[in-house]
Amino acid sequence: MKKYLSILTMQIINNIAYPGDFLGRSISIATFIFIFAGLWGTTFTIANTDAINGLTFPNMVWYFMMAETLELGRPRINRTISEQVKNGEVAYILNKPYNFLLYHFSAGLGDGAVRMTLNLIVGSIVAWILAGAPPAPLGWLMAFVTLIGAWILHFCFMALIGLAAFVVEETNSFELIYQKLVFILGGFLFPLDMFPTWLQNIAYALPFPYMMYAPARLFVKPDVDLFWRMLGGQAIWVTVFVFILAFVYQRSEKYLTVNGG
Amino acid sequence: MRQVKFIFALWKANLQAAMEFRAAFFTQIIFMMINNGVYFIFWILYFDKFNAVRGWDINTMMLLFGITASAWGIGAFFFGNFISLAEVIVGGRLDYYLSLPRPVLLHVLASKSIGSGMGDLIYGIGSFMLSGYFTPDGTLRFLLGVFAGVCIFIGFLVIVQSLSFWLGNTVALSQFALSALLTFSLYPSVLFDATTKFILLTLIPAALIGTIPAEFVREFSWQSAIQMVSGSLVFLFLSIFIFKLGLKRYESGSAIQVEV
Q: Phi then psi for B53, rounded to 5 degrees?
């Protein structure tokens, strides 16, 4: 456990070593929130209403702020794993005294912690200017708890996409499709509350809402029932995907071919 | 004529290189089309709920996506280095191009092809054909809009990345400029206030790539035509001028570069 904590700490230090780059990344979140606030501000004005499907304009902006914090803060672990598989570096990592997947989990968590914190700070400032005061403390608490399950699920998907490099050379396309599924069925661009009922049912039967909608929606409108439902869903999907990942990882090792070096 | 032959030779070489890994090439194309299609579901859901926003409906959005995706696709497939010029400058990789008797900027830009760009181009054309504006005069206006989009995408990003000649490493700034330009160009500028609209026509010229050409295809107007044509010419010539100016300050180390 101690070695994984050290990896995590090392990654945090690496991230804050370059403050320029560190701050530069956070500009993106301000741009995206600005666009989104423009879209929903106009929509609410034209609809001439304070709430659409129970969500107000400030709800929408803060929802998007949380969703963007997650999306932009999550490290693309798949790219690192895929690169290591393709260039053979994986062979050097496998004989080190740590688990390959746990190593990436810790390193990714270190990256993510720094990026998400910064995104949260910059995003909150922009959202506050555009939409007023932030949600209640209970919302922050529920969002933080569900963020853990969301992050683990995201890691499982990213690792599975990265490990696909053992079988297919090009894995970037899978990442793009995965990202768009989270954008739509995860409720990133459009909260699930706005979906037609049939599409809501499909979305809830899949893991994506538990990776994005859960923390963002609970953040702006804390709801105890929804909180337990989301937590339960996360527990089921995390169990399923941890097993799939362990299985795929075992099988992947058999595909490993290293040519000298 | 000599330069035209040269650029066709570069494109031919790029295509031959892509065909060496044709399975990967076609996979990239198909996945990019799926990627764009899945992203567009957002607008289908949005307009299903709200019908229209300030005159923009699902068909206009398909038109906007068609123009932007086609313009991006052409830029990425035929002039792929327009998104990585800063890395070429900072990495001292211009040495190779400077030693050859060909226009440096054109040579650098067309030396790389991004396979997924073809997926964007096919998606863009498909989106335009389904938008309801696929008529003979609509097609002509679409082609002009796409041409303007290509010029502005390339011109703007060459200008931003040429700042590397003066500021050093501007890779992070270039990535931000690219992300802002692409994101804003996929949203109609009618959503924003007057100040933002002005920024989208000048500092981050996203409206000249998406909104203005889409409105021009919907209905001919001299104002849109002049905005598009003058905007694209200004960005194109300004980019060439700034790149040439920066080239005078270019320095490289003694690293050995291999261009494949």
A: -125, 115
